[in-house]
Write a structure and sequence with these properties.
By secondary structure, the chain is an alpha/beta fold. The chain is 40% helix and 14% strand. The protein has 2 domains: 187 residues, Alpha-Beta Complex (Aspartate Aminotransferase, domain 1), CATH 3.90.1150; 255 residues, 3-Layer(aba) Sandwich (Aspartate Aminotransferase, domain 2), CATH 3.40.640. The radius of gyration is 22 Å and the shape is globular. The structure holds pyridoxal-5'-phosphate (PLP).
Length: 453
C-alpha cells in the first residue's frame, strides 16, 4: 500500500508556506535548514513555515495554530519561550556579554548544577551540539582504552560526523547470512576506512551483543547507545538489556557511552541513566539541557575526564561554553528542580498515551503507543517493535503519514516520519491533552477511511 499526502488539500490549508517554500528553494538547499525538515523526510509537499511559538502552541505563517508535539525535535522541553530562560538569557546578553574565550562564574555554576543532577557526571565540558559532543566522547574512549573500535547499534543516530554516521537506517542488505550487521555509510562522502573502526549490532538482543563483545573485546574502545532508541520511533529497552550491556562492558574493560541527547532531562531530571539506575562511563546531553537554546555537554567519570584535564585529549570550540548557552543551562537546571514539573510532564504523557491507545483500539487499526516520560510514538504495526529491523518489517510508514496529515488538519503538530518521536513539554496543559485526544478521534476516523481499513 502506498498512500501519499492529499496535496491539494494541503496547499489549501497552507498557502503562505507554499509561497515561502518556493522562495526558500532559491537560497536554501531543498528549501530548508536541516534534513529532517526536507520533503523526503516526510514534509510532503513542503514543510510548514512558522511565525511564532508560545508554551505548547505554535502558529504558522497562515495563522494556523497547533498544539506542538514536534517541539523542535526535542529541545523545547519547557515549551516555547519559557519566561525564566528567556529572562536569564536576555539578562546575560544585556548585562554581561556572550563570548570571552575565558572562564566565568556562570560556567562553574552551570556545570555544578548539571553534575548534581546526573549520576554519571563528575566533570563536564559544554559544547554546542550533540554531534560535537559525541565526536569527543568517542575520541576520549579510544584514548582511554587504547583500543580502536566503536560498537554502535542499527537504528540509532549519534550525529552526522564521519566516524559514527553509519547504519542509522541501513538498507536491508547491510546484514550477512549469519545475521551479522555490516557497516554501511548513512550517505555518500564518508571515508571508506572508517568501516574498519566500527562494529554494528542489533539493539535489544542480549545474545548477539554477548557474542560480538566476546569475540571482539580486545579491540572495542566503547559501546555507544541511546538508552532508549529514539531515532527509530520510540523503542524501550527490554527488561535487563541495559543492565547486561553495563555488565558486559565492565567485564571486558569497554567504556559504555550513553547518548542522552534526547533522553537527558526528558524522562527525568537524572536522565535515562537515573531512571534505569545504570551509570555509564561517559555521557552526552543536548536537547533537554538548555531550555531551547543550543548547547550540549559531554562528561563522565573523573578518571576518564582526566584525559581532558591533562590536555592529552583536546576538547575545544570557540562557541563552547558561551554566555547564552550557560545562562540557559543554569536557568533550565533551576526550572527542572522545581517541585512537580516532572509529575506534570509524566502525567500528561501517561494520560495522552493511555487515551491514544484507547482511541486506536476502538478503531481496530493494528497499532500501539510506546513511550516514556516526555516522549512517545504511535506504531501502526500488528507486532511489537523491539529494534530497527522490526520497525522496517512490521510498521506502516504510509498509515503513519496519513495519521500525521489528518492530525495536522486538526491542529496537532508532530513530525511526519514514523521513525521520529512525538514530544510533550512541561507547558502542555490538561486542556491541550483533552483537545489532542478529541482531535485524535476525528483524525483516526479519517485515517480509516483514507486507508480503507
Ligand atoms: C540521540 C542523538 N544523538 C546525537 C544527535 C545529534 O545532535 P545535534 O543535532 O545537536 O548535533 C541527535 C540529534 O537528533 C540525537 O537524536
Amino acid at each position: 500500500m502506498t498512500i501519499t499526502t492529499d496535496k491539494s488539500r494541503y496547499m489549501q490549508h497552507f498557502p503562505t508556506s507554499k509561497k515561502l517554500f518556493e522562495i526558500a528553494l532559491k537560497y536554501l538547499p531543498a528549501g530548508v535548514g536541516s534534513t529532517s525538515r526536507a520533503t523526503w523526510s516526510g514534509w510532503d509537499p513542503y514543510p510548514l513555515f512558522i511565525e511564532k511559538g508560545s508554551g505548547a502552541h505554535i502558529i504558522d505563517v497562515d495563522g494556523n495554530e497547533f498544539i506542538d508535539y514536534l517541539l523542535g525535535l526535542g529541545p523545547m522541553l519547557l515549551g516555547h519561550r519559557p519566561k525564566e530562560i528567556t529572562d536569564a538569557v536576555t539578562k546575560q546578553i544585556q548585562n554581561s556579554g556572550t563570548i570571552f574565550a575565558l572562564g566565568s562564574k556562570l560556567e562553574i555554576e552551570a556545570a555544578n548544577k548539571v553534575c548534581k543532577c546526573i549520576p554519571g557526571l563528575e566533570k563536564i565540558r559544554f559544547l554546542n551540539s550533540g554531534t560535537e559532543a559525541i565526536i569527543y566522547a568517542l575520541r576520549i574512549a579510544r584514548t582511554y582504552t587504547k583500543r580502536k573500535k566503536i560498537l554502535r547499534f542499527e537504528g540509532m543516530y549519534h550525529g552526522f560526523s564521519d566516524g559514527i554516521y553509519w547504519n542509522k537506517h541501513p538498507s536491508l542488505k547491510a546484514i550477512d547470512k549469519s545475521g551479522n550487521c555490516i557497516p554501511e555509510p548513512q550517505g555518500p562522502g564518508l571515508p571508506d576506512g572508517i568501516a574498519d573502526s566500527l562494529i554494528i549490532c542489533q539493539w535489544n538482543d542480549i545474545d548477539s551483543l554477548y557474542k560480538i563483545i566476546k569475540e571482539n573485546a580486545s579491540d572495542i574502545a566503547a559501546v555507544i547507545t541511546e538508552p532508549i532508541m529514539c531515532n527509530t520511533g520510540c523503542i524501550l529497552p527490554k527488561p535487563g538489556y541495559l543492565e547486561a550491556l553495563r555488565k558486559l562492558t565492565e567485564k571486558y574493560g569497554i567504556l559504555l557511552i550513553f547518548d542522552e541527547v534526547i533522553t537527558g532531562f526528558r524522562i527525568g531530571v537524572d536522565g535515562a541513566q537515573g531512571y534505569y539506575n545504570i551509570v555509564p562511563d561517559l555521557s552526552v546531553f543536548a536537547k533537554g539541557l538548555g531550555g531551547g537554546y543550543p548547547v550540549a555537554a559531554l562528561g563522565g567519570k573523573k578518571e576518564i575526564m582526566q584525559l581532558v584535564d591533562s590536555g592529552e585529549v583536546s576538547v575545544a570550540g570557540t562557541y563552547s561554553g558561551n554566555g547564552i548557552a550557560l545562562a540557559a543551562v543554569s536557568a533550565t537546571m533551576d526550572y527542572l528542580q522545581r517541585e512537580n514539573v516532572y509529575d506534570i510532564l509524566n502525567n500528561s504523557s501517561f494520560r495522552l498515551r493511555t487515551e491514544l491507545t484507547r482511541v486506536l483500539k476502538k478503531s481496530h487499526i493494528p497499532s500501539y503507543v510506546s513511550g516514556i516520560g516526555g516522549m512517545f510514538q504511535v506504531w501502526f504495526s500488528e507486532k511489537e517493535i523491539h529494534n530497527y529491523r522490526d520497525a522496517l518489517k512490521y510498521a506502516s510508514k504510509d498509515i503513519f503519514h496519513i495519521w500525521w496529515e489528518e492530525m495536522l488538519y486538526q491542529g496537532i503538530l508532530f513530525h511526519p516520519h514514523y521513525f521520529e518521536n512525538m514530544f510533550i513539554s512541561m507547558a502542555h496543559s490538561e486542556k491541550d491533552i483533552d483537545q489532542t485526544i478529541a482531535k485524535a478521534e476525528k483524525a483516526i476516523a479519517n485515517v480509516k477511511k483514507r486507508c480503507g481499513l
